[in-house]
Design brief:
five-stranded parallel β-sheet, alpha/beta, globular
């Protein structure tokens, strides 16, 4: 498949279906955006590990190696049959890595946008993925100003965000001001404390995901409070952690992986 031809063909389809474009990129219609808190988030590869009874409240994501993602462009229509059994998808995740030239970053972003809009045209809701490249691409944040929920993927990354990743994370919060953040992957307690210093009242819903699985994989919810100095809110902020009662039981031998970061946050 020629990627340029694919983009041209799909952009024509989107324009013929009255999809709006901002700065040359298509935008998922507001009524087709998933803007709630999912029960679970799991990668396309491990989607069948979500119990059937929870799938209509769960999202499929694409936080994976890119060599596993290219086929999703070819099988988009047949994949929608699978997606229809779930609450929706997290936006496509071709990476505009910060070490890429800016035109290459923008190419990945465009492909992600095209894919998400095509999926929404086929009746599947799309949760907004926070994927941006370097800070010169953070104009993307303004595309979805009314979304209460933003999805971040930290799978395959180090336990710590790193200064640049944390800066990107903070930029999203400052510009988009979401009420809820869904984080798929790993985060350290220190990073949560840093985030709490943004003077924002937000909730981080943390999903361990397959690669951070234990025998009972739970969703953790962290309530992040600002750093106003009051009796109930110490200067450094504080973290409250709740483990929801529903579990995902893993179906294979990869169930003994130690949860890094998220499992210990807030303790």
């Amino acid at each position: 498949m020629g990627l340029i031809n694919w983009c041209d063909e799909k952009i024509t389809e989107l324009k013929n279906n009255n999809i709006s474009f901002v700065r040359g990129r298509p935008i998922v219609p507001e009524h087709m955006r998933y803007d709630d808190i999912p029960g679970y988030i799991e990668t396309y590869q491990f989607r069948n590990e979500i119990p059937i009874e929870y799938r209509k409240k769960s999202l499929i994501c694409f936080y994976s190696m890119e060599d596993r993602l290219w086929n999703r462009l070819k099988t988009l229509d047949s994949d929608c049959i699978i997606f229809s059994k779930f609450a929706g998808i997290v936006g496509m995740d071709f990476s505009p890595s910060v070490n890429m030239l800016k035109p290459r970053q923008l190419q990945s972003i465009l492909i992600n946008n095209i894919y998400d809009c095509l999926i929404s045209l086929r009746g599947i809701k799309v949760a907004i993925n926070s994927r941006i490249g370097d800070l010169s691409t953070n104009f993307i944040i303004s595309d979805y100003p009314n979304n209460k929920t933003i999805i971040f993927g930290n799978i395959g990354c180090k336990r710590k965000f790193g200064a640049y990743s944390l800066l990107q994370f903070n930029k999203w919060i400052e510009k988009a001001q979401p009420k809820n953040i869904c984080l798929y992957g790993s985060i350290s307690k220190n990073d949560i404390v840093k985030i709490s210093k943004l003077n924002k009242n937000i909730t981080i819903n943390f999903f361990h995901g397959h690669n951070f699985a234990k025998k009972n994989n739970k969703k953790s919810v962290f309530v992040i409070c600002g750093n106003k100095h009051t009796r109930n809110t110490p200067r450094e902020g504080y973290v409250l952690k709740y483990i929801l009662s529903h579990d995902i039981k893993k179906s294979n031998s990869r169930t003994n992986y130690k949860v890094k970061g998220g499992e210990n946050c807030g303790r």
